[in-house]
Amino acid sequence: MTASARHAAAGWWRTAAIYQIYVRSFADGNGDGIGDLAGVRARLDHLAALGVDTLWFTPWYPSPMDDGGYDVADFRDVDPLFGTLAEAEALIAEAHGRGLRVIIDIVPNHCSDEHRWFREALAAGPGSAARQRFWFRPGRGPDGAEPPNNWKSRFGGSAWTRVPDGEWYLHLYSSRQPDFNWDNQDVRAEFEDVLRFWFDRGADGFRIDVADGLVKDARLPDVADGDETPFSDQEGLHEIYRSWRKIADSYPGERVLVGEMWLPDLSRTARYLRRDELHSAFNFDFLVCPWDSARFREVIERTLEAHDAVGAPPAWVLSNHDVTRHVTRYGRAGDTGFSFADRLHGSSVDLVLGTRRARAAALLTMALPGGMYVYQGEELGLWEVEDLPAELRQDPVWARTNGTDPGRDGCRVPVPWSGDEPPFGFGPGGAWLPQPAEWRAYTAEAQAADPASMLSLYRAGLRLRPVDAGSLEWLSLGEDVLAFRREPGFTFVLNFSGSPVPLPPHAEVLLASDPVTGDLPTDTAVWLRS
Q1: Helix and strand tally (H, E) in the chain?
Q2: Closest CA to 102 of 174, 211, 205
Q3: Cα 307 to chain center, whole Å?
Q4: Which residue numbers delimit the Glycosyl hydrolase family 13 catalytic domain (predicted)?
Q5: What is d(CA 264, CA 226) in angstroms, rounded to the nearest whole number?
Q6: DSSP letters along 287-337, please?
């Protein structure tokens, strides 16, 4: 089924292939070295030819860019760094004209310290109505010099910052990203209006940043290490998302809400996917899974079971703008999974092995029931750039951990489009982060005419995805072989073992991650028709 056909289909979000655009690093249209909406508009044909259905844009709002745009100063406009509101409206219309839907990021947990509400709160002082929109509290100790509790920022250090009048404000991320207080009705009304603002401009949905973290336990209790209970997965979230779902459902064309939730239990995530709440949520258990047949099968089984219980489709994802690219993860000699606690930066990596496994993982992702995500550059086989100079790193994680955590810049290096030298067609000027010289062989231009390239594999896979196939039935082909069947007549096999394995009976090889002339080689996936 083509992207245009899926665009018109009912329940499009249940099987959508969604492409994530980190605008700053996608394509530069004005030559300042930073990606922008003009650059995206110039590359829409690439995305349409790739075969995805939907584009997801990371924040394009006005922002001081302390956290790459996730510190929003105005939720109803576009940062001049990226373009104008009129350009965003034109981009949405042009994407629709190519059969592509558009999902945009919304960041409801926090804003920038330059947001007008936070400036009002600082000026208004303790006890004011303006401060009730955030989590301002007096400190502990005789002079209030200690934070109100022991919560830690996810970017390192305390989650509290003191202001000159002595009060402290909460920020689960950078100190320049104050958390909203969702017990406040102004906050709830504001974001409902923001949803309508972008729906009115044609947005087909929202990806909700930190979707599990909006509501906090108002007692603000101390926590033990690793405990996020008071500020994650609070029961009051469901009321918020039921309200948002009513707004989405009031618009034509099936507008959708997608949650970003890093929860330890898939059944907890699935509770947000009931029919009157969110439509979909990222499957991070799948993303962090190491290269192991049994572990993948366990994650897939648990995912399908949890989603079936609430009638929601799963959404499979291998990489995004926050995690180490999976070509690098899968090429490690040791741990091939992912954890924010230790990114394993600097570990030995075999990129040939990582690429082989990434090709197989792509076919696995495309073969599973539900929707899927492609992070920009994934279709080119890009790896994590781990040798960025310290002085060029911009992720606040790097700064707040004093360099002990390399942060996320390595997966945000600008996309290579063409040519033999950096910036590889990214734009008329340079690129805000340096690209490896080796990427000359990984540009979209270099790969487009190569039938064996990663780009050609993604194009074929997205074209042939079994979106209309039935549920998954496991096949027993060996302990280290992941295999399943989906009617009518689709079979998937991935060989995790150290030696080739026989293929099951079949009439045709539809697609393979690497050449298959007899038995299935190790770290290779194949689609079969029976």
Answers
A1: 15, 16
A2: 205
A3: 19
A4: 20-408
A5: 11
A6: HH--S-HHHHHHHHHHHHHHHHTTT---EE-S--TTS--HHHHHTBSS--S
Residue 25 near residue 415 (C-beta atoms within 8 A): yes
- Interatomic CA distance for residues 112 and 131, integer angstroms: 15
Q: Tell me the two tokens of residue 29.
A: 């249209």
Q: Token pair for residue 349?
A: 């990596």
Work out whether strand 371-375 and strand 315-316 pair parallel, antiparallel, or are unpaired.
parallel
User: Collapsing DSSP states into helix, strand and coil, what is residue 102?
Assistant: strand
CA dihedral 466, 16, 364, 485 (to 10 degrees): -30
Spatial strand order of the sheet with 508-512 comes to 472-474, 481-486, 490-495, 524-529, 508-512
Gap between the Cα atoms of 244 and 281, Å rounded: 15
Give the catalytic positions in this structure.
209, 260
Q: What is the pLDDT along the chain (530 residues), one digit of tens a residue?
A: 343 343 344 599 999 999 999 999 999 999 999 999 999 999 999 999 999 999 999 999 999 999 999 999 999 999 999 999 999 999 999 999 999 999 999 999 999 999 999 999 999 999 999 999 999 999 999 999 999 999 999 998 999 999 999 999 999 999 999 999 999 999 999 999 999 999 999 999 999 999 999 999 999 999 998 888 999 999 999 999 999 999 999 999 999 999 999 898 899 999 999 999 999 999 999 999 999 999 999 999 999 999 999 999 999 999 999 999 999 999 999 999 999 889 999 899 999 999 999 999 999 999 999 999 999 999 999 999 999 999 999 998 888 888 888 999 999 999 999 999 999 999 999 999 999 999 999 999 999 999 999 999 999 999 999 999 999 999 999 999 999 999 999 999 999 999 999 999 999 999 999 999 999 999 999 999 98
**Who contacts 274 (Cβ-Cβ below 8 Å, separation ≥6)?**
310, 312
Look at the block and give the residue holding tokens 């400190």.
Answer: 139
Angle in degrees, 0-180, between the axes of helices 237-249 and 185-199, rounded to the nearest 10: 30
d(CA 424, CA 416): 5
Beta strands in 322-475 (DSSP E): 371-375, 472-474
Largest separation between any pair of C-alpha atoms in the chain? 78
Identity of residue 32:
D
Nearest Cα neighbor of 366 from 259, 525, 523 is: 525
Token pair in block for residue 238: 């469901």
Place of tokens 């080689």: 521
Assign 32 to helix, strand or coil. coil
Q: How far is CA 147 from the centre of its chain?
A: 32
Between vectors from CA 239 to CA 238 and to CA 245, what angle results, nearest 5°?
Answer: 85
- Residue holding tokens 């920020």? 171
- Kindly state the tokens that stand for 464: 């042939």
Q: For residue 378, give both structure tokens.
A: 């994934």
* Per-position b or e across 166-205, b if 16+ CB within 10 A of its CB: ebbbbbbbbbbbbbbbbebeebbebbeebbeebbeebbbb
Q: In what helix (H) or strand (E) does residue 481 lie, and over which residues does it extend?
A: strand 481-486
Using a cut of 0.90, tell me whether the model's pTM lies above it: yes
